Amino acid sequence: MSKLRIYQPEFYSKNTVEVARELLGTFLIHETEEGVTVGKIVETEAYLCSKDPACHAANGMTNRNEPMFGPPGTVYVYQIYGIYMCFNAVTNREGVGEAVLIRALEPVDGITLMQKRRGKTTLKDLCSGPAKLVIAMGITMDLNGTSLYTGPLKIGYEGGKNFGIHTTTRIGISEGAELPLRFYMEGNSYISKK
DNA sequence: GACCAGATTGTCT
DNA sequence: GACAATCTGGTCA
To answer: Is pTM, for the whole model, over 0.90?
Structure first.
């Protein structure tokens, strides 16, 4: 993990679908006082502003989705169903309102800390869902609006990629559910759903 | 294994 | 006042 390279703003400034695909196989790193946790991203979803009723930004900027309209590489964390939270990486350009939802991670480092936070020991249960990985990584609303290249939460990569990418429809939404905007790493057993 | 109901609260209409 | 980019734990097979 020592030769991880952190993605710079230019990486997030591209087409949202392209960023969602390229994020697969990269590493999410969170440095906290409790310790460092690292997970490999194995599942993502793209949320496009235009023609995507499921996107929070589809109906313009509100108090909640304001970070989505920030510069690319901004962290967008929001609470859902009262008790859970989800983590997004803002993409495209400032003012557009698009982002990539991180849906699942494969635990890489700081696993005992993840197990402590989750109250579970099974590796596959630690990060196999958007709300689970937020808990395992120790992500909170404090990170909302921070930067993925200067803050404590970062995304980096190492080496090349050698795996297939599956494209399917998204999960857990009522509108725009037919759009093929979910991507996951082929053959990985840490995704949220097969 | 599959299916289903309940939890619980910020945000928007 | 209704809903939401979910998870968990229960039941039934």
So the answer is: yes
